[in-house]
Design brief:
heterodimer; A: two-stranded antiparallel sheet; 58% helix; 4% strand; B: mainly alpha
Chain lengths: 340, 198
């Protein structure tokens, strides 16, 4: 027997619990182990010493106050009608095991049928270059719907919930004259569009994301990063992308996103549309970081384009005493380069 | 030590009291208050170490008993159910107290005048304070298990049911609590020595 067993047994004894070891070996151990004798005595003294903390008595004020509140709460129960079981609540009856198994089997059968039906009927999704050829010989990509709305009659088919899809925007429809209710929900289907960024489908998608369809500034920013990466790799940007980047630089509420749009536009070959976007940003953007990018971009393009709009904007900015010194300096340097 | 069997003996009556509460009769609640208010107040007092907090929480336990009477399923004695509500309420209060930075170990030192000589009263207060300080060294989990076993005579199985832990965990918590207290009380000139030597 270990010394710890002896102490555990002593605490059990003090607590009035059955002692987990037989008395004979316990006594035998205590007879030869002085340390355990001391320890068990100390435990017993500790247990007895806790008696020094006397019990608190219930005061008359506390009793009266609590009984009053309890009476009020009990009567309130009566008034709130929580005494009787509401009529619209029925007793819970556990389903029989047979019925549960039958339902599970039905679900499995439906899931299997759904799987095979999908295998047989679903064509692979073609993003580009698949299904038809136009009169000019160009491949016409198939348009696939990404938003669908279906109404399912549960007497004919069942949704396969075996993969526990996340149901969002759940809504309930009241019963129709036939007593049929409706439960609507959205489920997410994940698509991955694969292709070069300048290809129509992907360019449209990126433009769509940059233009604000991305729910967060982060999503819009990541879309712009992707565009910037593509621009760095010297592929020509699609007009859609340029347009949406210009629009983002002009009106996105998030300065970080506007800055990314300015960065992306600055990497593109100069064009009147991009110039106008930068001119507007330099004149109106409240964020100095965006204005710095705009003045740098205009300073670079001014040397090549030498167009009047750019020069006048730089001139105005160089003389603007309320403007940031760096921006005024950049504008002045660009004008010097043009003159020389 | 003879274990308290009051909980089992009063089970039928307690169930009747709860039934009266369900029917909206205040007498059921009053009957349970008379039976358990002292025990619950002592439990909450030892857990919270502050009389006013203990009274507030004990009152809350009885009010919760009324509002949640439908949740009592009869699988445990009513006393265990009430202690379970009290233990949860104490934990919540201690958590809030920790957030607020409240420590009220010495708030328990309330003067008592029982007509005893002043030196005896001071000695009693000192012993009580020593026990309270020692109890405050225990974790909440150890303290609630020890208090239920030591001051309420609750069997380990009942403590386990009340605190919703295993019996093994109860045994471990109480053993560790006793080890901590023993170490504290055997320290040199601890007031504990004065308490035990009288």
């Amino acid at each position: 027997m270990e010394c710890r067993d002896v102490l555990v047994a002593e605490v059990a004894r003090l607590s009035g619990e059955p002692v987990p070891v037989a008395p004979e070996p316990l006594e035998a151990h205590l007879a030869v182990c002085a340390s355990c004798r001391t320890e068990t005595e100390a435990l017993a003294a500790t247990w007895d010493g806790l008696e020094s903390d006397p019990d608190l008595e219930v005061s008359e004020d506390f009793r009266r106050d609590t009984l009053e509140k309890m009476a009020a709460a009990t009567i309130a129960r009566r008034g709130s009608g929580s005494l009787a079981v509401p009529r619209n609540i029925v007793a819970f009856r556990p389903r029989s095991t047979g019925r549960i198994l039958l339902q599970a089997a039905t679900l499995l059968l439906a899931a299997g049928a759904g799987y095979f039906a999908a295998r047989v009927s679903t064509r692979p999704i073609l993003i580009a270059g698949g299904t038809g050829i136009s009169g000019t010989g160009a491949v016409v990509p198939e348009r696939i719907p990404v938003t669908t709305e279906r109404t399912v009659d549960v007497s004919r088919s069942l949704p396969d919930l075996s993969t526990r899809p996340k149901l969002a925007n759940v809504a309930y429809k009241a019963a129709d004259p036939a007593g049929r209710i409706g439960v609507s929900f959205d489920v997410t289907t994940r698509y991955t569009l694969v292709g070069r960024p300048e290809e129509r489908g992907l360019a449209e998608l990126l433009a769509y994301l940059v233009s604000g369809a991305g729910e967060t500034a982060g999503a819009r920013g990541r879309a712009i990063d992707l565009v910037s990466q593509h621009v760095k790799e010297a592929s020509p940007a699609s007009p859609q992308i340029v347009k949406v980047l210009a629009q983002t630089l002009k009106s996105d509420k998030n300065p970080g996103v506007r800055k990314k749009a300015a960065d992306a536009l600055a990497q593109l070959p100069p064009s009147p549309e991009i110039r106008d976007a930068f001119v507007n940003a330099l004149k109106t953007d409240s964020n100095p970081a965006v204005r710095i990018l705009a003045v740098e971009a205009l300073a670079r393009s001014a040397t090549d384009l030498k167009d009047e709009t750019t020069i006048q904007t730089l001139r105005d900015k160089a003389g603007d005493e309320g403007e940031n010194g760096y921006i005024r300096g950049q504008a002045a340097l660009a004008l010097n380069r043009i003159r020389s | 030590m003879v274990k308290s069997s009051a909980m089992r003996e009063s089970a039928t009556t307690d169930a009747e009291d709860l039934e009266r509460i369900r029917r909206g009769e205040p007498s059921g609640a009053a009957s349970l208050f008379e039976k358990y208010s002292a025990s619950l107040l002592r439990f909450t007092d030892r857990m919270l170490q502050c009389r006013s907090d203990a009274e507030e929480i004990t009152q809350e336990v009885f009010l919760r008993m009324i509002t949640r009477v439908e949740q009592y399923d009869g699988s445990a004695p009513v006393a265990s159910w009430l202690f379970a509500i009290a233990a949860n309420a104490c934990r919540d209060r201690l958590r809030k107290g920790r957030r607020a930075g409240n420590v009220s170990i010495d708030a328990v030192a309330e003067p008592s005048d029982k007509g005893e000589p002043i030196e005896h009263r001071l000695m009693d207060e000192e012993r009580k304070r020593a026990v309270r300080r020692a109890l405050s060294l225990l974790s909440e989990e150890q303290r609630e298990a020890l208090v239920l076993a030591r001051y309420h005579g609750m069997p380990y199985a009942e403590i386990a049911r009340t605190l919703q832990i295993s019996e093994g965990a109860v045994k471990t918590r109480i053993f560790r609590a006793m080890e901590t207290l023993k170490a504290r009380f055997t320290e040199g000139d601890s007031p504990w020595n004065a308490a035990t030597s009288s």
